[in-house]
Design a protein that fits this description.
784 residues; mainly beta; Immunoglobulin-like; 7 domains; eight-stranded mixed sheet; 62 strands; 52% strand; globular
Length: 784
């Protein structure tokens, strides 16, 4: 009897669990280039009807090996969605077959998900050979090329242009040229207009006779629809400059420049860009530009001393379009170098004497080049300079403790390489005064991480005492260089002596971190004593850190980070300290590391102070507001061979300008170059500078993975925050519940401001697109 019950129960279970299958798609054929094909996907007990039209469908595609025709993708969410679940067995789908599709038999693949937690519990179903793509009535084809002789005809040897956009109407089809500049699109019989679409990022002008082709396809192919293009800029004179030069150049164009209320007319910005390795992303922006007439404009460039030599393209932005002049400028070595030495003037005689210690971090200013240089840890600095009259002066900073004992400036005629432009300093601070900073490594979970303590004698007397570091109990001390003098509980001590005035020393410490989500803290301190061991000075600093398991090894941090995850509110009176960290993750030793960091216009460039660095660094500031940190002969080990010694950093402090609009957003991104490799672009930090930190700040809400919106719901303004470590072009599209696009935002930063304007109250869908990687985020926000 018991066995009979088990048999009956098994039969009941089998009968009650109806199989879930994907059956096919109706109609099951289409042609290359067919638009808005209405179909029904059939299944057995597969679909779930819920509040959203797509139900439990996460993705649907047609696949022929590597060839894929998309039908629906939840991650590319549009409104209304292209699929609609009718019942457990049927769902409608509207899609188009690309004009570039491969003909033949395709499988139908459909992925389901938990409709209440999209992206979870994914299940793939396949209907083999469910759809056939047939050849079109005809193909439309042509080429887009750089018309170098400007005759409007493609000639042998002229360069093809890849990734150029064309549109085919009335089908509203967009297509891009391939690596050979060719395009080829299948269409049905009918009348069409083929038009070339200009590109914002590199704006060309047409040289061929036709801006568009009107053609008829009648069961045959139409070819030879070629578009010849030329660059909008034609020349730059002079076309040669040197490192450290001030270049006043004339640029000519194809009648692009318009006058306006401002001297620069319709020009919004300009820069030159290195075209070859090793610094393929190196840019130098214009200091100023002035409209002359429709064909001519005047541009001023301050070429940094550390600018790589080579050939540069010129780029000018007009009305959001970027116009190019390839190979416009060649940068060479300078005609001469001016050098000097900064030192602690121990005997206060205004002369550099044997044995007097070097002073790093002092800033000098050179005219007429209008460029800055910062002394390195050996006290040395250098300018590249033209011949002729010059003034070289010490650039005193309001927050600096250094006072001059030598003349404040040198006026001279430069006839070639010259040296001896020395500056002596003493401190304005009390005796025994010292400074200390803790510079963290990447706080990865369960990893042994190396950080650096830097301490500096900022007084006029030789110092001795103790440096100490107290760490939270959830970290484990591993080692240090130099070895610690003693420990007491969670506090480690290092004795020091004979610390010369203005001298800096380092201690590297290694700790093993806890798991992700933990918070660790470090309290660094310095205690200075006199010859009788009486404490004369003490300073401490405590810094907490959140532990994560994933870190970009080349990053930028700002202190303070600011209040609120989205806005980062910071008082206008607070200085900002930036820490740039880098790691050699290549496969060989890096001989040179070079960092270029353009300072926001809302910060006082004259107040910049280099606080610490992992290795000896040469610092230069040009009038383009670019700070250049050059780690020459750094010999930075690669992370595979010697991970602890593959890291480096530089830390600096800068004050906001005295008069700013409340609020003012300050952004900062660094570009890091390892030897002959392209730039590694750090994350972008930002602070919103205000007179008073707002109270009652609403918490930001994550509206998709890695995308935050604040406040949600919004009233008049809202802010999107997202990852954009490489400063790529981000496009934000906003749709209402009817699926109509109501707003478009663009940014190369990591946040966007949404203004309500005429938008009505209600629910909106957004789509955030990284235009370079193609990554898409989507979600919903509300407007009250």
């Amino acid at each position: 009897m018991k066995k009979l019950y088990l048999i009956i129960a098994s039969i009941f279970i089998c009968c009650s669990l109806q199989a879930q299958t994907l059956n096919g798609i109706i109609p099951n054929t289409g042609t290359v280039g067919q638009q808005n094909l209405n179909t029904t996907i059939t299944a057995t007990n597969l679909f779930q009807v819920v509040g959203s039209p797509q139900g439990n469908i996460y993705e649907a595609i047609l696949r022929q090996g590597a060839n894929v025709i998309p039908i629906y993708d939840y991650q590319m969410f549009g409104w209304p969605p292209s699929v609609n679940v009718l019942d457990p067995d049927n769902a409608t789908a509207v899609f188009s077959i690309p004009g570039t599709a491969v003909t033949g038999l395709y499988d139908l693949e459909l992925t389901t998900t938990d409709p209440f937690f999209p992206g979870s519990n994914l299940q793939l179903y396949t209907a083999t050979g469910a759809f056939t793509v047939s050849p079109p009535d005809g193909y439309i084809s042509g080429k887009v090329y750089l018309d170098q002789n400007e005759n409007g005809i493609y000639d042998v040897g002229e360069s093809p242009l890849a990734n150029q956009s064309l549109t085919i109407q009335p089908s509203n089809i967009n297509i891009q040229t391939d690596a050979n500049g060719d395009y080829n699109l299948g269409v049905s019989n009918g009348n069409y207009t083929v038009t070339w679409i200009s590109n914002f990022s590199h704006k060309y002008l047409l040289s061929s006779d036709s801006a568009a082709f009107n053609i008829t396809v009648n069961s045959s192919n139409v070819s030879g629809l070629d578009f010849g293009l030329v660059d909008g800029l034609t020349s730059l004179a002079p076309s040669v400059a040197f490192q450290g030069d001030v270049l006043n150049a004339n640029v000519t164009s194809r009648l692009l420049f318009l006058s306006g209320a401002n001297p620069w007319g319709n020009i919004s910005s300009g820069y030159i860009r290195l075209t070859t390795s090793p610094f393929s992303q190196y840019n130098i922006t214009t200091s100023s530009f002035q409209h002359i007439d429709s064909s001519n404009a005047q541009l001023l460039f301050n070429i940094p001393l550390a600018a790589p030599t080579g050939v540069y393209d010129l780029v000018i932005r007009i009305n959001n379009f970027s116009y190019f002049l390839p190979g416009a400028l060649t940068i060479t070595l300078p005609p001469s170098y001016l050098t000097g030495h900064c030192f602690f003037d121990a005997n206060n005689n205004g002369l550099f004497d044997l044995g007097e210690s070097p002073v790093g971090g002092a800033t000098m200013f050179l005219t007429p080049e209008l460029s800055y240089a910062v002394s390195n840890s050996s006290g040395d600095y250098q300018f590249g300079a033209r011949l002729g009259s010059h003034v070289l002066s010490f650039n005193s900073q309001p927050t600096s403790y250094m006072t001059l004992t030598t003349q404040p400036s040198y006026s001279f005629t430069n006839t070639g390489n010259q040296g001896g432009f020395d500056f002596g300093f003493r401190s304005s601070l009390p005796d025994y005064n010292c400074a200390i900073s803790f510079n963290p490594g990447f706080m990865r979970c369960f990893q042994t991480v190396t950080s650096t303590i830097v301490y500096t004698n900022t007084s006029n007397v030789v110092c001795q005492g103790k440096v100490y570091l107290a760490h939270s109990s959830n970290t484990v001390f591993s080692s240090s260089v130099p070895v610690s003098s003693s420990t007491s509980g969670d506090t480690i001590f290092w004795d020091f002596s004979n610390l010369q005035p203005f001298e800096s020393r380092q201690i590297t410490v290694a700790f093993t971190n806890p798991g992700a989500g933990s918070t660790v803290s470090f309290k660094s301190g310095i205690q200075v004593v006199d010859g009788s061991s009486v404490v004369q000075f003490e300073d401490t600093s405590t810094t907490p850190f959140s532990i994560r398991c994933a870190y970009d090894p080349n990053d930028k941090a700002v202190f303070p980070e600011g209040v609120d995850d989205v806005m980062h509110y910071t008082l206008m009176t607070d200085p900002l300290e930036y820490l740039i960290r880098f790691q050699n993750t290549g496969n060989d030793t890096a001989f040179t590391v070079y960092i270029r960091d353009t300072i926001d216009v809302s910060l006082d460039l004259a107040s910049l102070e280099v606080l610490a660095s992992s290795h000896s660094v040469q610092t230069e500031v040009d009038s383009n507001r670019a700070v250049v940190f050059m780690f020459a002969n750094i010999m930075l080990a690669d992370s595979v061979v010697d991970e602890p010694h593959s890291h480096g950093f530089v830390r600096y402090r800068i004050q906001p300008n005295a008069i700013l609009i409340d609020p003012t957003v300050v952004e900062n991104t660094a570009y890091i170059y390892f030897d002959f490799n392209p730039a590694v672009v750090t994350n972008t930090t930002w602070n919103t500078l205000v007179q008073v930190i707002p109270v009652g700040i609403s918490e930001s809400i994550q509206v998709d993975e890695g995308v935050f919106f604040y406040p949600n719901p919004m009233d008049e303004k809202g802010y999107f925050s997202f990852e954009n470590t490489r400063s790529e072009r981000m496009l934000m599209e906003l749709f209402d519940v009817k699926g109509q696009r109501v707003s478009v935002l663009e940014s190369n930063g990591s946040f966007m401001e949404l203004n309500r304007k005429q938008l009505a109250s209600g629910l909106y869908m957004f789509r955030l697109i990284n235009t370079q990687s193609g990554k898409v985020n989507s979600g919903k926000i509300s407007i009250r």
